Amino acid sequence: MYMTFVSAGLMLIALTTLMLELTLIRVFDVIWTSNLAYMVITCAMFCIGLAGVISTIKPISTDSRPNRILAFWSIFYGISALSILPILNGLSKLSANIFTHPIQGILYSFCIYSILAVPFFSAGMIFSVVFSAFSEKIQSLYFWDLTGAALGCIVLIPILPLIGPGGILFLAFGFCLIAAACFIGRKTWLLLSLGLTAALVSIPILNYPKYIDFKEHSAKRSLLTWKERGRIEKTVWDPISKIDVIDITIKKWIAYDGGTQTSYIYPFDGNHAAIRQGMPEGADRHFWERMVLISHFLKRDSNQRVLVIGSAGGQETRAALMYGAGHIDAIELVDTVVRLGKETYARYAGYIFNDPRVNAQTGEGRSYLRTVQTPYDIIQIFSNHTSSSIAAGNGALESNYLQTAEAYKDYFDHLSPNGILHINHHIYPRIVTTAARGWKMSGRTDFQHHVAVYEAPGVQDNLPTILIKMSPWTSEELEEANRFFHGNRVLVEHPLAPEKSFLSAEFYSGEMSEELLDRIPFRIDPPTDDRPYFGFLRKHAHPLHPDPKSFLNLSTAMLLNAQLTANGIPMDWIHLFVTGAASILFSIVFLFVPLLFSQVGRSPWSGKGYTLAYFSCLGAGFILIELMFIQLFMKVIGYPLYTYAAVVFSLLAGAGSGSYLSGRIGVQPDNRWHIPFWGIITWGLVLLTMHDTFFRLLLAEPTWLRIGISFLLILPLGFFMGMPFPLGILAIRNRHPGTIAWVWAMNGFFTVIGGLISVLLAIRVGYQWTLLLALTVYAVAALLFVRLQQKEPIGGK
Length: 797
Known about the structure:
This protein has 28 helices and 12 strands. By secondary structure, the protein is α/β, with parallel strands linked by helices. Helix 11 links the parallel strand 5 and strand 6. Keywords: Membrane, Transmembrane, Transmembrane helix.
């Protein structure tokens, strides 16, 4: 009976840990940026394994039930998790000067790291104690651990909008109290903890629609100023992005993730004809600028079909309606923003999203595009990509699947013979090379005559206008576009006079020479779906200066220089440097501290190195496969958040089932141990080689079916991946006290460091080669397991 309570407590701790990790990632996306969120949470996650190191030095006695130890760490976990909110909010006052005052910056960083490290360290102590004390039940316990983690990755989606991240911390505290009662093993304590949890969760629920919220630590786009003035009308913690709607008198400002991205809802009375009469001179009063309108102006009154990817506040949709579009598909990734346009601010915006010509829905642009058969006359993307590191799948480097060569091929394949692709996005030289590769992949030629690029003259323009026509531009069309811009934007890439263009003809070829790639001082090579890092531009940390000879324009140089602090620190790289340095430091702690200060480390025993290497391989292999699958399955599921949840849930649920059933099918250290390794490698290779075929068959199917079949494809791999860890524990459970805690620490350490390795490998060789490497790691683990199969206890207990 007690083991049932232990299993329930372990599942709750695992659920809470993953739920807390994802919540804090979302919080740091808002109060900082996604790459800093990755850095801070990754470094904090090392502390789960660090708990195993401590348990190695001072292993617990397994002669009695460790119920009090587990209950203590569970309660401490809950208290420390709940403390994150007030402490982070208190530290927000120190954040403004962390890069100009080094001492203040060090103090601030230390406090941030400490408050985040404590709850994860507490969770690590619980895992380490449970697995060490009840190692004979590892196959069942690992099932409950992974099942809890699987639930933790999906519970955030429905709960976050209701209670916000502050409410999640209350819920985490409650779950820890219930877990403590389970570890005590008394029904009275369990009933009491359930009552306290209900009371705790009722606090944020009763406070809805207001949130017990975190304060911003960085002033993104003056959001803090408007907040201090009390001008925020609505706040919603959407699972993808936190949305704030601010009344700035002349319009409504939609701020994504604390101002990381932005859009506007303009007041409109519904009279398109009256607004159109004042165009283009009046564009700045009713739209962001003239660049929003240009494609719709060129296609005006032709009953044009339009696709807007990232419809946001609706200015692109409204421009299409104003110029006589016959049908508009307005696709927006964040469901809250769709509902704001169709419901909350529908009247304010002139009911544009309720117009019968408009199909406004939540979705991901490329996934939606693949379901469409009728071609569009205009596809418009206005500076659109998700700022959520969870939605992107990895916060280390933002993946942008709207800016890859394959994405442009999709756009071209869905445009009418005279259709226009209208893009406003920074770094237009890289957009040109990426689109050129997509054009070539579509079997088309003579790309340069199809591309016109307009840029603001003499200033930094982070939103140049790229217009790609499926038919070559004519002089009449360009003259019409020039008159519309009237000097507001100038033609920097001339399709009819290439000698007047800033870029050379090679940029339009679809294949750039290594000599040219080396000569340009930023990354210009086309991103692909296998390496979708459009925003990863920097080659070095030196300031850049515009240079036409190396095709470095003013806007690109200023954008990259803006990411350098006054001390020359590249903020777009800092998370990789800090995480890499932390990995080196923790590798010393995880390996050498037990070797020097623990009995199990100092005692000589056969196979010590093989044992540590085996569990390290399992940690690295698991996370490499998980992160690569998130990226691969993004192509078929489409919705980034659903992809993340589906992949992680499938792998963890499958792994839990594999662990639970491994004993029942006879997988033991001395029998059938090879089954999981053959299963992982075989099914992994099947998915690696056949996933494109599977995905093509599924692209036109409903979202729920794509998710369901993805689950079925991933589940068998997860099933086999859940067996090697408990198999290894069973093989070493009779060795020195502290051995299990040590291997647990190494497994956890390499799970975290594997995330960093996956980023570096994905940049260098792409997702598919990284996935192949992950399968190779499991093959190495199989060879190492042979050395773990010694039956006699070594050193005694």
